[in-house]
């Protein structure tokens, strides 16, 4: 029997030691001793570092003795730690975001009773009380300076090839004869709520996500966006890193509640909020990166949500127009591309509990998605006209999402019909009125009664029609569509059918008897996502044919959540992201071919995202970044992943020689 004295790593007693004369037993004995040593080390590390290392399966077979401690990372750094010059010691990563537990709900677990405000009193005290009553404890940033990164920012040496060349070409050798147009925009996208952190800093008001994320279970890992990537302070570093990768454009969103902490027309404008975005825009241009602004990426000011239900109320329209006007006046001339709304289709189906406790009288949870669409489309249209009236430079549109769909069983009438239904109920819900007709798709109007889907008046139709200068799409994937089980008609007759009213079924495997999956699949918690590279070019072509514009088409987001990335125990494993690299390079290749060979007017692409960030209800569990963010590191250290470097190699070897996009703007 063997014993381990946990107090002393030396006290290892093996009374049954093998005899020297028995080589087989000696070998076994040595293996037992080695195994016991390893267990002992693992156990002691576990005591030092918490539960993660107590799970012996988290220990790699190789080099257990060099496991570094979390938080005490043996890299030599300067400044805020952005030039890692240390030895290539494997960097262990916590399997669980250490902030997750800390960031669990502390605020009210239901809607506080009574009025949130006496409207009209917009003082600091009122805002402080609002934070305290509705949100509770907020984690404050660990530093509050904007450090100036080196420029040019140093890039690491390129990663060694993953596969032989006959299987995967190096990025610069892919499609060697094709080149992007001279004014093509290539860059990354982020969104305020997912990236900025510092949610209570410099006068920002709470957003609806600051509130809902406090409800246990609302976010998969019970985290909030209090810190996120701390882009509020680290944006210069992130811009410098994007510039080093060759990016010439950066798409970011503005937190409405940083500009109007109370959200409302007539309430005070927060100069510090404006100043933050001015600095960001200014620095971006300084680096030759064209800043692209989204006015609304799902972060409704909480004050408007609790006062009148946010987008459930027509009151949101004037408040949004008022906010947009402030942004237009302040940023005219420094922003060329504007988006009013991000992915309205996703946004308007988000609320469940607890937002639905804020619905105004007369709007049921079933009506909300349609009422929201109505108010959002009207707000978009009004802001579009304001943009033109104020003579703001540049172009404006909104970001669609989703896909047009492909019939699962080609040639089968009911699947072809299901595709048309999906188009009408998804992209068409916004793109038809805004780009084409001013009104909801006919198919939808024929099926949804006005008490569910409020109709537009003739004046509103005129107001809405043609209010987009270009077509923007977050095209992550294409999907296969079939009629639902039991057929479309039966579904349409049954309001409680789970697929009602769209009445289609989505398939991510083909209809062959074998049922092959549609493409490489993403992180399982992102079960909607797969690499559909072979469909991306036809998708953009079809969209351009259906919704032609003078301004062309932008791929405003595309990206991938590498499977199980967040569970990788070592940094060098986490930054090896082959599935994301496949998607990004294959999409880029298809886009290049789409421009050069098919003549599709694709004007720019934005990868989601430059850095890992807070993925809404999934929290930090799914990573989408081209750069890894170590959330346990005091400076939220970023590390380029393979995909960032390979994407950059592809872009740099295929971009037009003289990139004139930003130069033209700054003239
Ligand atoms: C699109 C959304 O705009 C963005 O906020 C989200 O993080 C990505 N999809 C990935 O899910």
Automatic annotation (TrEMBL):
Domain of life from the UniProt record: Eukaryota
A GO molecular-function descriptor: beta-glucosidase activity
This protein's name: Glycoside hydrolase superfamily
Transmembrane segments: none
Transcription regulation found in the keyword field: no
UniProt source species: Dioszegia hungarica
Xref: InterPro entries: GH, Glyco_hydro_1
Family indicated by similarity: Belongs to the glycosyl hydrolase 1 family.
Record flagged with keyword Secreted: no
Any Gene Ontology biological process: carbohydrate metabolic process
Coiled coil spans: none
Keywords on record: Hydrolase
PANTHER family, sorted: BETA-1,4-GLUCOSIDASE (EUROFUNG) (PTHR10353:SF53), GLYCOSYL HYDROLASE (PTHR10353)
């Amino acid at each position: 029997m063997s014993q381990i004295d946990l107090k002393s790593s030396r006290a290892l007693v093996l009374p049954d030691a093998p005899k020297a004369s028995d080589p087989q037993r000696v070998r076994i004995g040595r293996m037992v001793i080695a195994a016991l040593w390893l267990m002992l080390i693992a156990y002691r590390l576990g005591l030092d570092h918490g539960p993660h290392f107590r799970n012996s399966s988290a220990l790699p077979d190789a080099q257990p003795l060099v496991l570094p401690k979390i938080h005490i990372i043996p890299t030599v750094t300067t400044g805020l730690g952005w030039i890692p010059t240390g030895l290539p010691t494997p960097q262990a990563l916590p399997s669980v975001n250490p902030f997750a537990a800390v960031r669990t709900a502390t605020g009210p677990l239901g809607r506080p009773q009574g009025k949130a405000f006496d409207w009209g009193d917009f003082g600091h005290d009122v805002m402080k009380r609002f934070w305290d009553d509705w949100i509770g404890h907020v984690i404050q940033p660990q530093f509050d300076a904007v450090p100036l990164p080196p420029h040019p920012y140093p890039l690491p040496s390129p990663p060694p090839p993953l596969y032989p060349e006959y299987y995967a070409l190096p990025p610069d050798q892919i499609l060697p004869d094709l080149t992007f147009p001279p004014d093509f925009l290539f860059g990354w996208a982020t969104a305020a709520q997912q990236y900025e952190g510092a949610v209570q800093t410099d006068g920002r008001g709470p957003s609806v996500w600051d509130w809902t994320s406090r409800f246990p279970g609302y976010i998969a890992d019970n985290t909030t966006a209090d810190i996120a990537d701390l882009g509020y302070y680290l944006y210069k570093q992130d811009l410098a890193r994007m510039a080093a990768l060759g990016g010439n454009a950066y798409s970011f969103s503005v937190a409405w509640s940083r500009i109007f902490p109370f959200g409302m027309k007539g309430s005070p404008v927060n100069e510090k909020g404006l100043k933050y975005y001015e600095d960001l825009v200014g620095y971006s241009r300084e680096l030759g990166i064209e800043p692209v602004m989204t006015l609304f990426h799902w972060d409704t000011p909480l004050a408007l949500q609790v006062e009148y239900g946010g987008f459930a109320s027509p009151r949101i329209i004037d408040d949004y127009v008022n906010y947009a006007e402030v942004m237009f006046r302040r940023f005219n001339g420094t922003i060329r591309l504007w988006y009013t709304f991000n992915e309205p289709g996703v946004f308007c189906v988000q609320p469940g509990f607890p937002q639905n406790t804020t619905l105004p009288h007369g709007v049921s949870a079933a009506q909300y998605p349609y009422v929201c669409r109505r108010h959002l489309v009207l707000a978009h249209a009004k802001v579009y006209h304001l943009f033109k009236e104020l003579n703001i430079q540049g172009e404006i549109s909104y970001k669609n999402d989703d896909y047009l769909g492909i019939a699962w069983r080609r040639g089968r009438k009911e699947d072809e019909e299901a595709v048309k239904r999906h188009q009408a109920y998804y992209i068409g819900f916004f793109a038809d009125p805004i780009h084409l007709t001013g009104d909801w798709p006919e198919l939808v109007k024929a099926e949804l009664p006005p008490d569910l889907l409020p109709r537009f008046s003739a004046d509103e139709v005129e107001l809405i029609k043609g209010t987009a200068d270009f077509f923007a799409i977050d095209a992550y994937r294409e999907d296969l569509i079939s009629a639902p089980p039991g057929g479309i008609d039966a579904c349409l007759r049954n309001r409680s059918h789970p697929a009602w009213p769209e009445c289609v079924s989505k398939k991510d495997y083909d209809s062959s008897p074998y049922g092959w999956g549609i493409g490489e699949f993403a992180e399982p918690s992102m079960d909607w996502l797969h690499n559909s590279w072979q469909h991306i070019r036809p998708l953009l072509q079809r969209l351009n044919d259906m919704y032609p514009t003078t301004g062309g088409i932008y791929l405003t987001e595309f990206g991938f959540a590498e499977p199980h990335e967040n569970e990788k125990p070592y940094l060098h494993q986490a930054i090896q992201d082959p599935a994301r690299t496949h998607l990004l390079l294959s999409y880029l290749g298809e886009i290049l071919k789409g421009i050069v060979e098919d003549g599709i007017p694709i004007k720019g692409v934005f990868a989601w995202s430059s850095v890992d960030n807070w993925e809404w209800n999934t929290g930090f569990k799914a990573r989408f970044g081209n750069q890894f963010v170590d959330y346990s590191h005091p400076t939220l250290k970023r590390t380029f992943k393979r995909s960032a470097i390979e994407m950059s190699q592809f872009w740099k070897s295929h971009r037009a020689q003289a990139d004139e996009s930003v130069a033209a703007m700054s003239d």
